[in-house]
Amino acid sequence: MNNLQPYEKYLADKLEQAPVPDKNEGWIEMRKLLDEELPEGGTGWSGNRKWWWMGLTVAIIISGVWLSQQFKEKEQRNDREAIAAPSSINEKKEPSNLTTSPAIIKANESNQHKEPNTAVYPNAENSQQKIVEAESRNNIKRATIDDKNNPTPTRFNSENRTSEGKHDVKKVLSNPFEKTKAKINPGSGAFYASTQQNHDKNNISDIKNSTEATLSNSGDILSQQSTGSSAYSIKTPEELAVISNSLNAGDITDFAYQDASKILGNTPLAVQPMKAEPGKTDKAFAKEMRTKSMGADNRKMSKRSMRGVSGEKDHELTFAAGLALPQSFAIGSQQSPAYGINAKTGKASDYVPVPFFQYHVNNHMFLQTELQFQAPQFTDRLLISQSQRPVAPTNGMLERNIYVEKLYYFHIPINLYFSPIKNFYFGTGLQYSSLLSGVATYQDNTYSNGSLQNSNSRVQGFKDDSVSAKLAPSEWRYQLEANYYIRRFTLGARYNQALSQFVNLQPSSTLPLTQGRNQTFLISLRYNIWEERKKSAYYTDAW
Amino acid sequence: MNDRLAQEQLYKQFHGPMAAICTRYTRNEHDAIEVLHSGFLKVFKNMDRFDPAKASLYTWIRTIMVNTAIDFLRQKSRWYISHGDLEKVETEGVDPDALQRLTVQELLKLVQQLPPATQAVFNLYVIDGYTHKEIGKLLGISDGTSKWHLSEARRLMQIYLFKLANVV
After folding, report:
1. Residue A179, class by beta-carbon neighbours within 10 Å (0-12 exposed, 13-18 middle, 19+ buried)?
2. Does A22 touch chain B (CB under 8 A)?
3. pLDDT digits (tens, 9 = 90+) for A238-290
4. A386: nearest CA in chain B?
5. A389 at B interface, C-beta within 8 A
6. A34 in contact with B at a CB cutoff of 8 Å?
7. Contacts (Cβ under 8 Å, ≥6 apart) of B103
8. Are A384 and A404 in contact (CB under 8 A)?
9. What span, in angstroms and rounded, lies between the C-alpha atoms of A292 and A298?
10. Per residue in B112-122, pLDDT tens?
11. CB distance B28–A389 less than 8 Å?
């Protein structure tokens, strides 16, 4: 036990009975603090820890989306490579036995006067002539293009039109004779139209079937259903001779250039530009096809060039990340004090770079989010607290006023941008804002007999204390933005306004309500440090 | 423990004595409430660390409140740790009659008018029963400095009481 003087014991006993603030009112304020610091059911993240977790979550989501996009692109690339590989193999494995033997010529001569739409197989000796009714050219063409039995879509379907399709068509049409030769299997003596199981084979099959259709329409040999499942085997050398005779290189080439358009006559518009004129060279035809079929993609490129990324215009932008430098301006009756965070002189703390992430939905629309770790918020000079207490020796009164001067928030905006005009993007979205700290003026006025005797003011920062407890800890804001996007730079102007008031209280019982709603106007300069572009299938495959 | 109902019960149960401690260590009601709530927040956050075998709940909460109040004084007030000359300190008696004429509010004002460090030492030694050694450890000062602050508090209290008695 400490040695106390008698009056001290009395003082200690008396002070134990000192009046205290009302516990019910105190609990209301305490509960507010608890809701902020120890949310019910939560683990009680507080302060910076909460923001670290939130930032980490956003980073994980963005990384996940980016990785899935990468994976998707890789799959598409693999698909394209897989499509390209077999077609080249087919070209290399072309049989070279279409030589016209005397036997074939003989057989051909014997069949010169057959009906056009009838394929006659000259095994007359065994009375085994087979007559296969040929379908008309249109029927075959339709069957080729809109092959219902084909399990995979054909290249000539406009919905599945890809560069590979054009590529295959070009290659086949530029040298159709090779393709036609490839259909003859000398080992078995069969001329077949086998079912093409995979995608690339279907491409070739389309052309092949078309060729066959033309041949059969001319009545020289046979017709084949283009259903792929139908096949006709040639059993004897005579049959092969007849077929070989019909496969006159010149005829086939003429067909390829003259009748390709007829074969594709009923195809969707997307493939119609492949119509070639008689006598056109390979190069000219290929150029024409390329120019016409690029129409839609050219429009896409125009949109891309609107974005000013002409150097990278061949690839579509999907993700971008970078840093922004924002500059806030006081608007309306807002004041712009020359204090930084924690009431320190100098406003360097107002210019913390802002990391941002963009996801480009397409060429004229993108989503953007940012992490504004420490954004200044200018406000009106609002009185948020007034307390008075008597000064015992002088019988005067001390009045303390607290005025809010400036606030600092952590913002996470999510905006959707759209480009209706070249290079200009207009965006709108929502922003979550959480109060970090603020700067306030603490004014102490001393009154004696009702007149002001002395007044002292000091500017001081506040954070996580009773002053910040008077302000809304977080709020949502809607915002509008206009951007000028050129190359990797973006110059933007943004306005946002809170959906709720950040202060709504009565500083003292004799004063009116103090209310305030945050609004911000800022100009920012953004730079895309990192960009992820989706390589267009069209441009990656060389013509 | 993060149950609002339980927290409310605990808060209301200990609100009176804890608010009294906070009022004595601070200079106004506004600051007292701030300390009180910071202290209770620490209590709720660290409730799992309370060990009934070591101390009662009241003692544990009171210790947290005192420590919170001292931290607050260090941060917010101009914390002068004077190293006065103990030899020159003269402790004079206070007129008990003058003291008894004062109300609790007036007595509280007397304590609140003391310089922050002196006020803290006075509170710790006279009202909360800390020794000079404990005070020195808590405030990061020597025993002698703690004694000096106590003497300074007594001297100032005498002056204030004298003035107040004359006014009254």
Report:
1. buried
2. no
3. 555 555 454 444 444 444 444 444 444 444 444 444 444 555 566 676 666 66
4. B30
5. yes
6. yes
7. none
8. yes
9. 10
10. 888 888 889 98
11. yes
